[in-house]
Design goal:
The protein contains three helices and seven strands; from the N terminus they run H-E-E-H-E-E-E-E-E-H. The relative contact order is 0.10. This is DUF4440 domain-containing protein.
Length: 203
């Protein structure tokens, strides 16, 4: 009777040990994945995507928030150089990655979704804050997690860049309309004056 009880106790304790080990491993994986988020934020703030090289898989690809696709680290660097060109000398771009819930880990793959709080500051100090949406897929590579795929997007209709463009277009249209109105009014006045018959003097 004692032996079966001891056997059950050993099996139970072994199960608890394995369960505790699995939880510890999963916690370590989530911590490592969070480090990727920090590395990404720091790379963007520094304007140095090349610092992400140790964290990118060899087959890394992505779609940026503007809809442009990159297929490797060189493409990612070229994209950020283009962004810097838009911002101008001294312009700055920062991003805060919001992770609403832990990544889902399935074997050696992990995926997560969330949002970003982005701020683009041009060389003349104009600020363009906006929010983005992202999805990321990571893969375990030895004892590291690396980014395989990222996909970013933003609201195409109500983002700050679209609204600013529409406001500028409206302003330009108003100015052009005003100038055209003045020109047409002056032209009509000239035509009316030119065609008005001369009044004969009263004798």
């Amino acid at each position: 009777m004692i032996r079966p009880l001891l056997l059950c106790l050993c099996v139970t304790l072994s199960g608890w040990s394995l369960s505790g080990s699995a939880v510890a491993d999963e916690d370590a994986d989530h911590a490592a994945l969070k480090e990727l988020v920090t590395a990404y934020e720091q790379a963007i703030a520094a304007g140095d995507p090349n610092s992400l090289k140790p964290h990118l898989a060899d087959d890394f690809t992505g779609v940026m928030v503007t809809g442009e696709e990159v297929t490797n680290l060189a493409g990612l660097d070229a994209y950020w150089q283009k962004v810097q060109g838009y911002l101008g000398q001294g312009g700055k771009y920062t991003v805060e990655v919001v992770v609403p819930q832990p990544a889902v880990i399935v074997g050696d793959l992990a995926y997560a979704v969330g949002t970003t709080k982005d701020l683009a500051v041009t060389s003349d100090g104009k600020e363009y804050p906006f929010e983005g949406f992202w999805t990321a897929v990571c893969r375990r590579d030895g004892d590291q997690w690396k980014i395989v795929r990222i996909h970013g997007s933003m609201d195409a209709l109500t983002n700050v860049f679209t609204i600013t463009s529409l406001q500028r277009a409206s302003t330009y249209s108003g100015v052009i309309g005003g100038v055209a109105g003045i020109f047409i009014g002056a032209l009509l006045l000239w035509l009316v004056t030119r065609r008005r018959p001369a009044v004969a003097p009263i004798t």
